[in-house]
Write a structure and sequence with these properties.
The chain has 452 residues and is an alpha/beta fold. The protein has three domains: 6-42; 74-272, 3-Layer(aba) Sandwich (Rossmann fold), CATH 3.40.50.300; 291-448, Ribosomal Protein S5, domain 2, CATH 3.30.230.10. It has eleven helices and 21 strands. The protein has helices spanning 39-42, 76-82, 102-111, 127-137, 152-162, 187-204, 223-226, 328-342, 367-379, 405-414, 443-447, and strands at residues 6-10, 16-17, 33-37, 91-96, 118-122, 144-148, 166-170, 208-213, 232-238, 244-252, 261-266, 269-272, 291-298, 301-313, 321-324, 349-355, 387-390, 392-393, 399-400, 419-423, 436-440. The protein has a nine-stranded mixed beta sheet with strand order 6-5-7-8-4-9-10-11-12, sandwiched between helices. Helix 8 (328-342) links the parallel strand 15 (321-324) and strand 16. It binds thymidine-5'-diphosphate (TYD) and magnesium ion. Thymidine-5'-diphosphate binds next to helix 3 and helix 4. Magnesium ion is lined by residues 102-103, 124, 170.
């Protein structure tokens, strides 16, 4: 069989080269060449502009809107993120670090879809390995077929012969086209395989889920090339040392990217958590110095967070500052605010902050809890019991308002936080509440209310 002709295309300026080159002679960018199938040689039906037949655009008012059916997943938390279920013909990319539970989430979902014919293609694990895992999770759908293969042409032929209702590719990095010379996992292979699968999904109306590994930077490998091809990008995240997992949509053509799904990893697979308010709290440190509580919002839900700080005499000449789960630059800014506005001398101190639970948070409403934990550790005094700190801190030391203040207060109160400290500027936003609410203007006023 004669191979399809391939060319190397600069991803920066579309310059075409017959062989791989490190530096683009046209735009001078480095490492920008990616192997692609030569459209000119592969597309024999291509016509010049004079030969092509004109298409027929439809006036927007004449388009009939049909409600599409969605295949609901057995997890409500998964459906919430998908926007109600899998849309026919859609291509969904599920990304996450190795070992986070991507295969488990998908396998468990399809094993609990009785009456749905599933083809699970794995390039990572053997049939026996998958069977063992499936038994651990519980097999409630016997119509689930496992196929271990990495050749995309063979995979597509098999899909067509089996004609399943859902197709899973675990993972997109392991599959490769025989038309390209590059090895599996390279951007050209990932992109070509995804393109072929997308063509199949759109033509057949069968949803295809692609599992993809995330690299160190938090990007799904080859994301630039896949994000525009797929209909939805979901990210599965969490800490390997912790049990819960968040499913976060980064893109969704059929739903919002606002909602998150929360799960817990157990010995028998994943369990969804529909009331995740206090999952991030360790519950072990109440009454210790350096511990402060706050809130973050994720989609329509509010989660409590526990900031843990340790301030100690510097071991080295340059003191260490490190934050886990909280943006490091924001952390340094908050330390500067404490030093400048409160006169707390941190220049000879090592300061460490950790957000319990292993998640990365980026809600600035957590600023106040972080500051409270650092001050508490500095003075080695526990903060007033059952207090929750909700507010953003500005460079001037002002406590700034945050979104959804009422929801945050009621969630904190529901979970046992009877004292709540928020920005004075939100006095008029707060509805009558059973919790004791203190309003503070700036960090100075705030520091006066930390200890009972
Ligand atoms: P896995 O789904 O293989 O991760 P990924 O596909 O993202 O690489 O999950 C691997 C981890 O999950 C592994 O460390 C074991 C753990 N696990 C459980 O704790 N309980 C279970 O029931 C299963 C199937 C896996
Ligand atoms: Mg896996």
């Amino acid at each position: 069989m004669s191979k399809t002709k391939t060319v190397f295309v600069c991803q920066n300026c579309d310059f075409i080269s017959p062989k791989w080159i490190g530096k683009c002679p046209n735009c001078n960018s480095w490492n920008s060449f990616i192997e692609e199938i030569d459209e000119k040689s592969s597309n024999k039906n291509s016509k010049t502009i004079n030969e092509a037949i004109a298409g027929k655009p439809v006036a927007i008012g004449e388009i009939v809107r049909t409600e599409f059916y969605r295949l609901p997943m057995p997890f409500d938390e998964f459906n919430r993120v998908l926007g109600g279920g899998l849309v026919p013909g859609s291509l969904v990319l599920l990304g996450g670090e190795p070992g986070i539970g991507k295969s488990t989430l998908i396998l468990q979902s399809v094993l609990n879809l009785p009456g749905t014919k599933v083809l699970y293609i794995s390039g990572e694990e053997s049939e026996t390995q998958i069977k063992l895992r499936a038994e651990r999770i519980g097999i409630h759908n016997k119509d689930c077929y496992i196929y271990t293969e990495i050749n995309i042409e063979k995979i597509l032929a098999t899909i067509k012969s089996i004609n399943p209702d859902v197709v899973i590719i675990d993972s997109i990095q392991t599959v490769a086209s025989q038309e390209l010379t590059s090895s599996p996992g390279t951007i050209s292979q990932i992109r070509e395989s995804a393109r072929q699968l997308q063509e199949y999904a759109k033509m057949s109306g069968i949803p295809v889920i692609l599992i993809g590994h995330i690299n160190k930077d938090g990007d799904i490998a080859g994301p630039m090339s896949l994000e525009h091809i797929v209909d939805a990008v979901l990210q599965f995240e969490g800490d390997n040392n912790h049990f819960y997992r968040l499913l976060r949509p980064k893109k969704n053509r059929f739903g919002s990217t606002y909602e998150i799904g929360v799960f817990e990893m157990l010995g028998s697979g994943l369990k969804e958590i529909s009331d995740p308010g206090n999952i991030l709290l360790s519950g072990e440190n109440i009454g210790l110095s350096g511990i402060a509580f706050g809130t973050i919002t994720e989609g329509s839900r509010t989660l409590m967070i526990e900031a843990q700080a340790l301030v100690g005499n510097a071991v080295f000449t340059s003191p260490q500052r490190s934050s886990t789960g909280f943006d490091n630059r924001r952390f340094l800014m908050l330390l500067a605010v404490i030093e400048k506005r409160l006169g707390v001398k941190l220049n000879q101190k090592d300061v460490f902050v950790n957000i319990a639970g292993g998640l990365k948070i980026n809600d600035t409403a957590a600023d106040l809890a972080v500051i409270a934990s650092v001050i508490s550790s500095y003075f080695d005094k526990p903060l007033t019991e059952n207090t929750c700190f909700i507010g953003e801190v500005g460079l001037s030391g002002q406590i700034r308002p945050v979104s959804f203040i009422d929801k945050r207060i009621s969630e904190a109160f529901r979970l046992g936080f009877t004292n709540i400290i928020i920005s004075a500027s939100q006095k008029s936003d707060v509805k009558k509440n059973q919790a004791k609410i203190s309003f503070v203007q700036d960090v100075k006023e705030f520091a006066g209310k930390l200890f009972s």
